[in-house]
Amino acid sequence: MPQPPAQQRLHAMLDLLRQQIAQQPDGACRQPRFDTQLFRTSGTRLADYLRELESNVSQLTAADSDVARRQWLAEKVLDQIAALQRECDSQQLRVKRERPRIDSRQKKREEYQGFEQRLLAMIQQREQHLARAETLSVQQQLIREVDQLQERLARCRAAIYKLELQFTSR
């Protein structure tokens, strides 16, 4: 039995979309590309979204579901097709705009450098308080705090040094 013209157009649109997605660099994204109401898939690749769309199309063309469900699913399929087409059309722009992924060692190094900056600020603050301290007990407490912060700073710098060695030994 031949397919109705609407189904033929739907399958033609789906075939065209498959071809467009096949031509795209289909890398995973850091975040989902679409709203969860549009696509339920947990993947972030275009192929993941295409699989969900194909599943919805096969449910739509099955004759055993009620009319209200089919109408809702037809609208969803059209929205999914439009969204995937827009995404394919904007891929060339997106590749240029997205930041390259930072590997875990680079991220860790930046985190440690942030710790180092905060520790230096804390040491400077305690030393300023020490210069203004009037009683001996306050001075001794601030000296202990500065010593503790210096030790933490030394450990932090050692960790940064180890990461730097990993970068140079790549």
UniProtKB/TrEMBL annotation:
Coiled coil regions, renumbered to chain: 132-166
**Which species does this protein come from?**
Pantoea nemavictus
Q: Which Pfam families match?
A: PriC
- This one is known as Primosomal replication protein
Supply the alphabetized keyword list: Coiled coil
Keyword Coiled coil listed? The answer is yes
